[in-house]
Design brief:
The complex is a heterodimer of chains A (about 170) and B (about 525).
Chain A lengths: L2 E5 L2 E8 L6 E4 L2 E9 L5 E6 L2 E10 L2 E6 L2 E8 L1 H9 L5 E5 L4 E6 L6 E2 L4 E7 L2 E6 L4 E6 L6 E2 L4 E7 L8
Antiparallel strand pairs in A: 1-2, 1-8, 2-3, 3-4, 4-5, 5-6, 6-7, 7-8, 9-16, 10-12, 10-15, 11-14, 12-13, 14-16
Chain B lengths: L2 E2 L9 H26 L3 H9 L5 H8 L7 E3 L17 E8 L2 E8 L10 H16 L4 E7 L17 H13 L4 E10 L4 H4 L3 E5 L4 E3 L3 H8 L5 H5 L1 H8 L4 E3 L2 H13 L38 H5 L7 E5 L7 E8 L2 E8 L5 H16 L4 E7 L6 H5 L2 H13 L5 E10 L2 H4 L9 E4 L4 E3 L3 H18 L6 H18 L2 H6 L12 H12 L15
Parallel strand pairs in B: 4-5, 5-6, 6-7, 6-8, 7-9, 12-13, 13-14, 14-15, 14-16
Antiparallel strand pairs in B: 1-10, 2-3, 3-4, 10-11, 11-12
Classes of the chains: A mainly beta (about 170), B alpha/beta (about 525).
């Protein structure tokens, strides 16, 4: 699987090859010998790759790696292969029904029918077992129908909101 | 490989700002109360210490600890709602600190309050810190300076199973386990208190202020007529040269503390249980954002993943069964490099969420992973449908797996803890290694409003049977006081006052607190998992 690295839109798939040497990497299917040695100053490294020696500075923020090398700065995004696979699989389309997770009462309706909502936007607040729960849009969508008004009681599994999926899937917004 | 939690919090939203203001106010109040309990005493009490040539308990502890290392204090607000607030921190300071590079428990009497006399909650706090020492095989340094049991309340602190006797019993058990103890005798240890240095492997006694005796001079005179001064009866020279009750005499508190540090430095460091320790990294999301996540009203739900993201290394989390039993979040993460299983509430416990919890607890036991419980629970789901589906037996499986766990358990009271949810989620009764609470925490057999309404209903029906009808004002007259006392008794301050936890913490300190807890828990080997009979 390996990790996918994105540098200015160009992607490479990198994974370590175990067995002959821990410092052999497969980059886009080609083997390269590489070692990275930290210098005494934090963030400074010596990289030896296929016999070439480079000095570089690197910093990381989440999956973004900022690398300063040969007078230039590069921003490389490391994309987890599983996450990418799940994004593709999660694409949704068509009508979707949001059902009551438990019996309760509608406290508040936050959007009108026909409204276009974004992932995570609160559509309705329900209360059950002393707890108010927000019913949120699982993805970008248009609200087709608000099935219950504020104050209405419902059983578990009751239809609360009907949505029509719009645009891209969750996570890519 | 774990993946980063994607936060959905809008840090520019109105809710975030309102919650943040509320939680900063709550934390401000907590810090204020803590500062008061730790440092504020009437001037005459400080004068008395100075007159006797004694330093304040906080100074003693600071001198003992390795400079620049953390001190995880337990129950800093113990007894805050009792004894008219007289017994600050229950008159004793306890916690985990680093001395000569070793993790130790420090138990220090506070002679600035009624001569360090032990109130009932002082005893409870002493017993608790020695329980922590036993469970986590932590050596103990005692700083003894107590007048003995607070006599007006002696019936509440002497005879029961976890009363004063338990302190000495725990000392004996620690010794039997091979866990060393050191006593620094800075004041008088009278009656039962004399057993603290006597049951320690090492004891240093101060010339002048230090004294150890079963009966002090007044009691001796009353009992036998013998007239003897305290120093001749049980001073440093008698005990280090003649009786052998103590091992070293010191001429100053400073000398005693430095000698104590030298003694701790010769103790063998415990072997930690092996674990998959990673290089720690801070959470990707700023823990300060926790203030904007916990709502200002306990009824409002929030996503526990947002809390997890601000506690664990790199905000990285592997979520187990993400689409099943979704009101209970289960998964693996690392805290300060230690692998943990996390179980957090995202709503009421249903049949499926209870089964998921039981299953995940078994997995954690199977792969020797300590479990962190993040409580925000109103209880198990009620109603005919859920009873028919066996919510009782599914809840029982969750409790059976949790109570039967062999891996260390840690509980953080993130918000509410109500009803049987407290049991499933490793409440105090389940012998987790530590329980810590946030200042907004509320706890009780049910919510305050529900309790007040239930009690008002009962009263109304009683009166109706007697042929009376109550007016709305009369009903409110019943409901009001119940609500008030219930709210008081369900607050985090009442809970911590009674040692239902090991202390209130600022939410942003949760990660560091758990880091220390996880480290000390590794002193104790983890047994093979086994459980009671589950009802399927």
């Amino acid at each position: 699987m390996g990790t996918e690295f994105d540098l200015a839109g160009e992607t490479s798939i990198v994974h370590p090859i175990h067995g002959d040497s821990a410092s052999t990497l497969s980059i886009d299917g080609h083997p390269h010998r590489a070692t990275l040695v930290p210098a005494t100053t934090p963030g400074e490294f010596t990289l030896e790759i296929d016999g070439r020696v480079e000095r570089l500075h690197a910093a990381r923020h989440g999956e973004f790696h900022f690398i300063h090398m040969r007078g230039r700065t590069f921003c490389v995004e490391a994309i987890d292969a599983l996450k990418r696979a799940q994004r593709v699989a999660a694409a949704v389309s068509g009508e979707q029904v949001l059902r009551a997770p438990m019996p309760g009462v509608v406290i508040d309706v936050a959007v009108a029918e026909g409204a276009e909502v974004q992932t995570g936007e609160v559509l309705m607040t329900i209360e059950s077992m002393k707890l108010q729960t927000a019913i949120a849009a699982p993805h970008d969508a248009r609200v087709v129908e608000i099935c219950l008004a504020a104050g209405a009681r419902f059983e578990q599994g009751a239809t609360l909101v009907r949505l029509e999926a719009m645009g891209r899937s969750e996570g890519e917004a | 490989m774990m993946r980063r939690i994607e936060s959905r919090i809008d840090i520019h939203g109105a809710d975030y700002q309102r919650y943040r203001e509320k939680n900063l106010e709550r934390v401000g109040e907590f810090r204020h109360r803590q500062e008061e309990a730790r440092f504020e005493r009437p001037q005459r009490d400080f004068d008395r210490l100075e007159h006797h040539g004694k330093t304040f308990v906080r100074e003693r502890i600071e001198r003992l600890l390795d400079p620049g290392t953390p001190f995880l204090e337990f129950s800093s607000l113990a007894a805050n709602t009792e004894y008219d607030g007289d017994s600050k921190g229950a008159s004793v300071v306890t916690g985990i600190g680093i001395v000569a590079g070793r993790e130790v428990i420090i138990r220090a009497d506070d002679p600035s309050i009624k001569g360090g006399a032990w109130y009932p909650l002082t005893v409870k706090k002493n017993v608790r810190c020695l329980d922590i020492a036993i469970e986590n095989r932590l050596p103990v340094v005692h700083m003894c300076d107590s007048a003995g049991g607070f006599l007006p309340l002696q019936s509440e602190l002497f005879a029961d199973r976890v009363s004063a006797g338990r302190i000495f019993r725990n000392q004996a058990i620690l010794s039997k386990m091979g866990v060393p103890q050191l006593s620094l005798v800075f004041g008088q240890c009278t009656a039962g208190g004399a057993y603290i240095p006597s049951l320690s492997d090492y004891a240093i006694i101060l010339r002048g202020n230090g004294g150890i005796f079963l009966g002090g001079p007044p009691l001796v005179k009353a009992a036998t007529g013998e007239i003897v001064d305290a120093d001749t009866l049980g001073g440093a020279d008698v005990h280090t040269q003649v009786s052998g009750v103590a091992d070293y005499a010191a001429n100053s508190e400073e000398e005693a503390i430095l000698l104590g540090r030298e003694i701790v430095s010769v103790w063998q460091k415990p072997e930690k249980t092996p674990t998959d320790l990673r290089r720690p990294e801070p959470p990707y999301y700023d823990p300060e954002e926790l203030y904007g996540i916990i709502p200002d009203d306990i009824k409002i739900q929030f996503d526990m993943r947002e809390v997890i993201a601000r506690i664990v290394d790199g905000s990285l989390f592997h979520e187990y069964q993400p689409d099943y039993g979704t009101t209970l979040i289960c998964g693996y993460a690392h805290i300060w490099g230690h692998r943990v299983g996390i179980i957090g509430n995202n709503g009421v416990l249903f049949n499926d969420s209870s089964l998921k919890g039981a299953h995940f607890i078994q997995l954690c036991n199977q792969n020797r992973t300590p479990i962190v419980f993040l409580q925000n629970i109103t209880g198990f789901m009620v109603g005919q449908e859920y009873e028919a589906r066996g919510i009782c037996k599914d809840g029982a499986k969750f409790i059976m797996a949790q109570a039967g766990s062999e891996v260390p358990k840690f509980t953080v009271m993130v918000n509410g803890s109500f009803g049987a949810g407290n049991y499933g989620m490793c409440g105090r009764a389940y012998d987790g290694r530590f329980v810590f609470s946030w200042p907004n925490h509320q706890i009780g057999i049910m919510g305050a409003e529900q309790a007040a309404n239930t009690l008002a209903d009962v009263k109304v029906r009683q009166r109706e049977r007697a042929g009376e009808t109550l007016t709305a004002a009369e009903i409110e007259g019943i409901r009001g006081p119940v609500l008030e006392s219930y709210e008081r008794e369900s607050s985090a301050y009442y809970a911590t006052s009674h040692l239902w936890d090991d202390g209130i913490i600022d939410p942003v300190d949760t990660r560091n607190t758990l880091g220390i807890a996880l480290s000390v828990a590794r002193n104790t080997p983890i047994e093979d998992p086994h459980y009671g009979v589950m009802r399927f």
